Amino acid sequence: MFEGIALALLVCLILAWVSKKVRFPPIPAYMFAGLLLGAGGLGIVGESDVSDFLAEAGLLFLLFTMGLELKPGEIYGQGRSFLVSGTVDLAINILTGYAVAVVVGFDVMDAVVIACAFYISSSAMAVASLIENRKLAAPESETILWIMVFEDIMLLLIIVALSSESKSPAAVIATATVLIAGFFALCYLFRKTVRGFLERYEDLGLLFTFSIVLAAGGVAIALDIPSTLVAIAIGSAMSVTKPEILEKHARPFRDIFLVIFFVFFGISVDLSSGFPVIPVILLSLAAVATKLISSLVIGKATHGNYISGIEIWSETTARGEFSLAIATYGSPLVLGTIAVMVLITSTIGGLTGKYSDKIKRYVKKKSGKGRLPG
User: Fold this and answer.
1) 374 lies in a domain?
2) Residue 374: per-residue pLDDT
3) What keywords tag this UniProt record (predicted)?
4) CA geometry: angle at 22 spanning 296 and 35, to 5°?
5) Alpha carbons 162 and 95: distance in angstroms, whole number
6) Residue 372 lies inside a defined structural domain of this protein
7) Per-residue pLDDT at 79
8) 373 belongs to a structural domain
């Protein structure tokens, strides 16, 4: 049990070091390591209750930190650009994903799961790429981050829709709404107390953050609602306190546990019995193409030119952690299909993010002017 986790982390440490050297996101490497070490590869590392817990914790801490960025006041202030960017991204990608999945042979329910995974980009890769490639000051960076926020909100609805097997969607929504409203009310009422506590007790703040996230997951399980939904909600509710301190405390847990999430997801996927190669390739290429189309439309609408759309596309092409979380709601065939799609798109996304300036220069040269025609 522990030997497998230790071996997986050692392999990931080496891969992370190599990724840093070549300035390439390590997420595809983590998944590939899992596929190699798991039952479909060498078969030397298997899943366990401990690895499942740590992987789930990694996803919860990621969603919690994303929730800290969901400040209702700021979202409202973005107005038209937020809604236009998010709606275009949603409509083009989720509809195309569903259509392509049906065309290549998946049934309706599997196609719905695939479409949701097809739509949502990897926030972890997008943010890491913006930092690693020193693009945070670029005018498109804010648009990219707000697209990620819009996708996070949509993720809430997707999780509710896909996780309503044991209860009706209405019951899940009602229970979650009451719980989330309670979170927001408590955080607002005690915001000054929590702020003072976090500012005064640095060491206890770490334990506080760890406890809050895991407690939120435990409450969700007890009430039979998605723990991923609750993690985002508690993060958003806590954003009225000291989100920068909470993010700082959550980051170490997120970074370590999330590595375990990626590698053990790869271990859980067994591709040795085969998977639909051509449909997966078609899905992956379509995923790259539709993000390009939606990004060009967003670039034109929000920045006035298509070159900005290419920059947005370069950082949103990769699918990752959220697509993998959605994949767990599908059949084993869907699980393998989405896993390979994530591997392909995250690899392509890593390259587009790294070489976006060269891509834009090439497009400008070919178009003969500072922006694409139209």
Assistant:
1) no
2) 46
3) Membrane, Transmembrane, Transmembrane helix, Transport
4) 85
5) 17
6) no
7) 61
8) no
Please, is 328 exposed, middle or buried when counting C-beta atoms within 10 Å of its C-beta (0-12, 13-18, 19+)? middle
Is pLDDT at 370 greater than 50 in this prediction? no
The set of residues, in sequence order, having a beta carbon less than 8 Å from that of 227 and lying 6+ positions away, is 56, 60, 216, 217, 220, 221
Tell me the one-letter amino acid at 296: L
C-alpha 200/C-alpha 182 separation (Å) is 26
Q: Residue 121 is part of a domain; what is its CATH number?
A: 1.20.1530.20
> pTM surpassing 0.85?
no
Q: Which of 85, 143, 82, 80 is nearest to 297 (CA)?
A: 85
Q: What is the number of structural domains in the chain?
A: 1
- Give per-residue burial for 176-208: e unless 16+ CB within 10 Å, then b: beebbeebbeebeeebeebeebbeeeeeebbeb
Q: 169-189 and 227-238 are packed helices; what angle lies between their axes, rounded to 10 degrees? A: 30
Please compute the mean of the pLDDT values over residues 324-345 and round it to a whole number: 88
Distance CA(43)–CA(28), nearest Å, equals 19
Residue 174 in tokens:
């009602």
> What's the average model confidence in pLDDT over 104-111?
91
Predicted local confidence at residue 202, as pLDDT: 72
Four-residue CA torsion sign, 122, 303, 150, 194? positive
Residue 16 has pLDDT above 50, yes or no: yes
Question: pLDDT value at position 75?
Answer: 59
Query: What's 305's DSSP letter?
Result: S
Identify whether the C-beta of residue 118 lies closer than 8 Å to the C-beta of residue 96: yes
Tokens read off for 52 = 């499942």
Q: Which residues fall within 8 angstroms of residue 86, CB to CB, at 6 or more apart? A: 146, 147, 149, 150, 151, 153, 154
Contact status, residue 81 vs residue 75, Cβ threshold 8 Å = no
Give dist(CA 24, CA 15) in Å, integer: 10
* Digit-coded pLDDT (tens) for 215-236: 888 888 887 777 777 887 888 8
Predicted local confidence at residue 78, as pLDDT: 60
Structural domain includes residue 9: yes
Q: State residue 11's pLDDT score.
A: 84
